[in-house]
Amino acid sequence: MRKLLLFALICALPASGDDRFKDVEIQALELAQGVYMLTGSGGNIGVSAGEDGVLIIDDQFAPLADRIAAALKAINPRPVKYLLNTHYHGDHTGGNAEFADQATIFAHHNVRLRLAQDSQLTDAHLPVVTYGDGITIHFNGERLRVVHLPSGHTDGDSLVRFDQANVVHMGDLFFKDTFPYVDLKGGGSVEGYLNNVTTALSWMDDDTRVIPGHGGLATKADLQNFQKMLLDSIRWARKQPMDASLQQWQAAFPESLHTWSWRFITTERWVTTLYEDKARIHD
Fold it and tell me: Please, what is the average pLDDT of the chain?
């Protein structure tokens, strides 16, 4: 039986000058031997910890780096050797520079390209190893399959499969129990997002533990429920007249789907995403 350990770690250090992070706690949940999920503020972090050292998937925001590092030390005192970015958004890559002195950063080609376009970032923020279709990492007795899935949340999305532990880190291809953010300007698409979720489900069984980009630990059934919401939204959008106004789409959106609304992606914002991507949805 898998050992499940939940602990909260509050770092005594100040919040690096950013008050919105001052009360953030980093919590760690052990999913399998040496495999953890960290939560705090921003995208959920995946962890492989063992004799080879520590590998992390995403790193939230820069002001949290010290607290994340302290939480990792509580799990395993060995250094962070590798850092994987599932995509380019700052709530998943904000701590890159803080970990770059000890860890080699991996990501899809497009993640480096998009981060490099941000004039506020330095070379230390950039992945130093990039890939196309994916890469396999053998670490701590585990085979981690890093797979690029095209044009979904962004154009640089990767998910990570822990083969032995039967854990999948979805990055932001999964927002548990809420509407997702589809970054259309960052190369994402609504239908591509659905296709990628469907692909990910084909690699899971009923025992797979799923780390979403945002939200609590999930199961295959949770992801299937999310897939159904996406499919229902797309099927509805395909029935809407192309020449209808955004306001008409907003008024017609099914009440049954409003329960997926949340503070960041409200129903209004989700319908706006569908409307702005309607040419591809109707294609």
Answer: 94
Q: How far apart are the first and last CA of the chain?
A: 48
Please name every residue paired with 48 in a beta bridge, in sequence order, or none if there are none: 35, 55
Which residues make Cβ contacts (< 8 Å) with residue 232, sequence separation at least 6? 254, 257
pLDDT digits (tens, 9 = 90+) for 133-166: 999 999 999 999 999 999 999 999 999 999 999 9
**DSSP H stretches of helix in 81-189:** 90-93, 96-99, 109-116
What order do you get walking across the sheet with 134-139 strand by strand?
A: 134-139, 142-148, 158-162, 167-169, 209-211
Contact between residue 232 and residue 257 where contact means Cβ atoms under 8 Å apart: yes
SS3 76: coil
Q: What pLDDT digit, counting tens, does each position of 15-41 carry?
A: 344 688 999 999 999 999 999 999 999
Q: β-strand 45-50 against 53-57: which pairing, if any? A: antiparallel
Residues 6+ apart with CB under 8 A from 44: 37, 38, 58, 169, 211, 212, 213, 214, 215
- Phi, psi angle pair for 253, to nearest 5°: -65, 135
Model-level pTM?
0.93
